[in-house]
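writing this on my phone so excuse typos. first protein, seq and then structure
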Amino acid sequence: MISNVARPSPHVDVERFRADLREGGVEEMVGALLTTFAQDCPERFATLEQAVQQGNTKAIESAAHAFKSGAGTVRATVLAGGLASVEAAARAGNLDSIPEMLEQIRAEYVAVLREIYAVAQK
């Protein structure tokens, strides 16, 4: 489980996420929610990647949207923004730009996971 230790991050704004949860009276859930997000990431990315490989615009849009929601919730804003771009491209039927965006998302998602697990080690 991820500890409640936080530090400034370019990939995950743990302090903002903590503040969001504090406002809702559930700050103690920070670690559990980050852990759940980190555990879900590989499957969410694989689902998105498979949809892109199949060229299925509806599946791409759906997978990007679901992954984006989780990323936004934990304040992984760069990742969420990239996923929003993929979602919009799929909705518009612009499949040509998606593979390059997918590689950027892959790099950001790996960085997000590294940061979440670094927080867990403290």
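second protein below, same order as before
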Amino acid sequence: MASKPKLFSKICEIILQKQPWLGAEIGIETGSAELAKKTMPAKAHPFKPEEWPEVVRTGVGLMHDNNLIPACTLIVGVPEETEEDIIKTIELMDDLKDIRSLIVPLFFVPMGGLKDEDWFEETEMSELHKELLVKCLRHDLYWIGELIRLGFVGKWRGTILRSLYEVFVKIVEFKVKRAGI
């Protein structure tokens, strides 16, 4: 999509004739070009791994502009992850604050080429990891109301279900506030 923005916009235009929005899951994984180069060098193709953060910014910006709502994942605790890598991911989160999306951090699970590595566990979290997780939570809480509203547009059960989801979000917000996050 970042490599062919006009084609992407045209496809969205066609699909949006039948529905008000689209959804997709995308793996952002990291905001660090260096970590992207080490752990997923082909993911940015046709771009270079060093361009990964800009590819993400461009891609999710296109999604936002074309009513495609991404559910994004980040990987926390990737082997060889440095404090600088976490800072770069936090900075990317700051850049994505105006993008309608959900961003979910996931702890590293050994798979594929990294299958022999250790799982990342909560006890290994640094203050920077915690800051990143809080940024994701705040981002999601900021956008969740609009996402709930969009999710039930034109559906007969929308009013009831939307209300239930909104109550759930209020409970989460209350607990977050009570926890001092």
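Residues 5-141 form a domain with the Transcription Regulator spoIIAA fold (CATH 3.30.750.200). thats all i got for now
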